[in-house]
Amino acid sequence: MAKILIKGGRVISPAQKLDDICDVLIEKGKITAIGKKLDSKGTEVIDASGKVVTPGLVDIHVHLRDPGLEYKEDIASGTLSAVTGGFTAVACMPNTDPVNDSQTVTSYILKKAADEGHCRVFPIASITKGLDGESLTEMGELRALGVYAVSDDGKPVSNPQLMRRAMEYAKPFGLTITSHAEDLDLVGSGVMNEGPVSTELGLKGIPWVSEDSATAREVMLAEFTGAHLHVAHVSTKGSIDIVRQAKKRGVNVTCEAAPHHFTLTDDAVRGYNTNAKMNPPLRSEEDREAVRQGIADGTVDAIATDHAPHHIDEKNVEFSIAMNGIVGLETALPLTLKLVEEGVIDLPKAVALLTCGPAESLGLPVGQLEVGGAADITVIDPNLEWTVEAQKLASKSKNTPFDGWQMKGAAVCTIVAGKIAYKRG
Amino acid sequence: MSFTHKHILGIEQLAKEDIKLILDTADAFKEVNSREIKKVPTLRGKTIINAFFEASTRTRLSFEIAGKRLSADTVNISGSTSSVVKGETLEDTAKNIEAMSPDIIVIRHGHSGSPHYLAERVGCSVINAGDGTHEHPSQALLDLMTMREHKGSIEGLEVAIVGDIAHSRVVRSNIYALSKMGARVRLCGPGTMLPIGIERLGNVEVCTDMREAIKDADVVMMLRIQMERQSNIMIPSLREYARFYGLNPTNLLLAKPDAIVMHPGPMNRGVEISSVVADGVQNVILDQVENGVAVRMALLYLVSGVESMQTK
Amino acid sequence: MAKAETIILDKAGIDRAITRVAHEILEYNKGCVDLALIGIRTGGDHLASLLQSRINKIEEIEVPLGAVDITMYRDDLAARGSKPIGKTEIPFPLDGKHVVLVDDVLYTGRTIRSAMDALMDFGRPSTIQLAVLIDRGHRELPIRSDYVGRNVPTAREEDVVVVFDENQNPVEVKLVKP
User: Fold this and answer.
1) Hey, what domains does chain A have and what are their CATH numbers?
2) Rounded to an integer, what distance in angstroms lies between the CA atom of residue A353 and that of residue A58?
C-alpha cells in the first residue's frame, strides 16, 4: 500500500490537543508520523495547505436501511454518502427489516460493511427484540460481536420498568443506551412541532413536553442505575436544560444535536414541505437557540445527523402521511462550520463535535489522530463554496431540506484506514 | 380591479380587495338563484370536477349546484382519505383527473395542505373545499356575505366564534377573512380545543369564558362539535359541553340585541346550540346555506377568467 | 401622444336625440301599453332612465324600468378574463311585454345578443326592440337597431365614448382616434 503524505494542513485533533500546521504521514493504514516538513520521498502527496486536517469525522446516528429497506439506502450507498460528507465512521440504527436485534443481523451488517462499505460501520443493536418494547435483546453477545450501543430509536421504550432493566443489564457490559426520548402518548398523531405554525397550517402538533418529559425520565433512570445514557437528537430547550443539569449532578449522560435542529425552525414546514418533516420535529426559534447554546457551553457532546433516507414516493405525498426524516451526511459538515462562522463555537470545538465527541459518547475506538493510530483522516477545505443539489447527493435518497442552499466548507479528501475513500472534484 | 388568483387555496393568500370582489360578484350571482330559470351560460363548456375525499353533503351539493347554474359540466368523484400510503397516491389520482382536461378541480380532503399539493402538480385551477384542519375558504366567504347582508358592512364587527377551535378549518379561514375586512374576532372553547398561537393569525382575542366572548357581539358563530370524532379526553361529556359552551336564549342575551347567530352546519341541537336559538329569529343559518351557492358561483367564475386567460 | 378626440354630440344634441327616440318608441308602439324599458349596464341603464322620464313627460305614464348586466352572458371570458358582475334588476314580469332594450353604443352586436339571451331567461316578452344612442356600424351578428340617436361612421380602431356626469346624465359623445 502506498504511503500518503498530507502536507501543510492545519491539523486539528481535539483528543490530542493538537492544532498546528504540520504534515501527516500514512503507511500501511496507520499514521506513522506527524510533524513539520516530513520527507515526501516515495509518497503520494496531498497538498493540504489552506486546509484543515482532522481525525475522520464520526456520525453516531445514521440509518443505513440495510437489511430490508435497500430501496431507500444500502450499506454501500450510505457509506459512500458518509465519506462524501467527510465521515469515516458511522453508527447505524437497528430499525431495519429485520430489526438488528441479533448476532445474525449484526454480523450481516459488519460483513457487508467490510465487503462493500466505504467507511467504518458500527451497528447499534436494539434494546428490545423486534423493537417490541417488551423483551431485552442478547446484549452481552451483541457487545462481544462489536456492538457499542443499543437503542430502540424511532420506537422509544415506553415502559419505564423495561428501560430501567435495560440500563441495569447494559451497564456491566459497557454498553451505551441511546435513547430517542419521546413520550409517544404525548406525541399522539402529531406531525410537526406544536406551536403557532402548526396552528396556522392546521397540522397536528408534537409538543415540546413530549420530548422533555421523556428526557427527564431517561436521565433519572440513568441517575438511578448509573448506566451510560446517550440522548439522541436533542431538539428542545427543556431537554438541553435537563441534560445540562444532569451533567452538573454527575449523571453519566451524553447527548447529541442534529444539524437541522440547530439550523432550521418549524418555519421550514410552511408550504407543507415534506422534506422539513422529521422526528423530533423542527422546533421553535427559542429551541433552536437553546440547542446552539447547548453546543456552545458543552452540554451537547456530539453532532449527529440522524441521516434518514426515504424514497421519493414516501415524501411526495400529503404532509400528514409523509415519512419522517431527512438525509444529512453530506450537509452536516458545512452546517457545523456555519456555527463557527456565526461565532457559536470555534473551529477546534466544531472538529471535536464531529470526531472525539461522538466517538466518546458511544465509546467507539475512533475520532483520534495520533501516531500509531488508524489512518482515518478528513481533509476539509473550510472556504470551499458550493451549492447543494439534492439530485447529485451520493445517497440513494434525495430528501433534504437544504436543496439549493449555498454552503461553505466541504471535505475534499476522506481517508479510511489509510486508503483514499473519497476525493472531491 | 381584476382577479388574479388561479387557485383558491385559502383566505390567507387573498387580499382585502379580492375578498370584496368575490362578495360583490356573489351578490350579483345571488340574483340568478332567485330567477325562475336558475341558469346562466357563463361557464358553458367548462368542466368542473368535485373531488371529495372526505364525506360532505352540503359543501359538495353547493359546489355542484353552483357549477350547474353557471352551465359548467360538473362531475363528482369521491374517495376516502386513507392515513396509510397504499393504493393510488393523490398525485396519481390528480394526474388521471387532469388527463381528462378539467378546467377546475374542487377538492375536499382530510389532510391539511392537500389542495396546495394538488395545485403544484396540475395545470388547471384548484379550489379548496376544506382541507383537514387548515382552511375552508368558501365557507368563510359565505359567512362574510351573510354578515354583510345583515350588518351592512364587515368593518368594525365583533364576531364571537365558539367551539372546537383547534380542529376547525372554518375558524382559520374566518379569522383571516374577518381580520382582513376589519372585524374583530373573539374565540372561545374548552382549554383542550384552543390551539397554541391562534391569536397570531389575525385580529383575535381568546376568551376562556363564553359569556365574555359573546358579550356585545354583533355575530355569534357556533362551531359544530364533531361528536363522532370526540374522544373523552377532549371534553368530559356533551352535557357539560352544552352547559359551558352551548348557545342558549339566556347567554344569547349578552350579545347585542340585533346580533345574528351563525353555524356552518350541520347543527347538533342541544349540544352547541339549543333548539330555541336554532329556530329563533336571530339565526341566519339558512341564509348562509343560500349564500353558499352564490359565493361558490363567484369563485368558479372568477378563477375561470384567470384560468382561461392563461390557457389562451 | 394624446389621442385625437372629436365631439360627435354635445349635451343639447343628446337631449334632442333622446326626445326624438322617446317619440318614435311611443309612435311605433302606439302608446305605452305593455311597454318596458331595460337598459344594458353600464351606460344603457342611465339612458333608459332618461327615456323613462321623457316618456313620462309626454304621456304622463311611468313605464316599467329595468337594468340588465350581460357579463354572465358574454362569449369572451378567455379574452377578457373575469370582469366584475353588475346587478341585473328586472322588477316586473317580462311575459307579454314590449321590451325596449337600451344601450349607449351599438357596435358588433354581441352585447345585444348577450342581453337578449339574458332577457329570455327572465320570461317571454312579446317583442324586443332596440334603442341606441349611437350606431357606429361594424356588425358581426344580424342585429339592427329600431331607434337610433345618431348614426356615426367609424373605423374599427376608433372608439366611441359616451361621457356621463356624476349624476349619470350623459354630457357628450366623443369619437376617439388612436
Assistant:
1) 4-52+374-423 (2.30.40.10), 56-362 (3.20.20.140)
2) 9
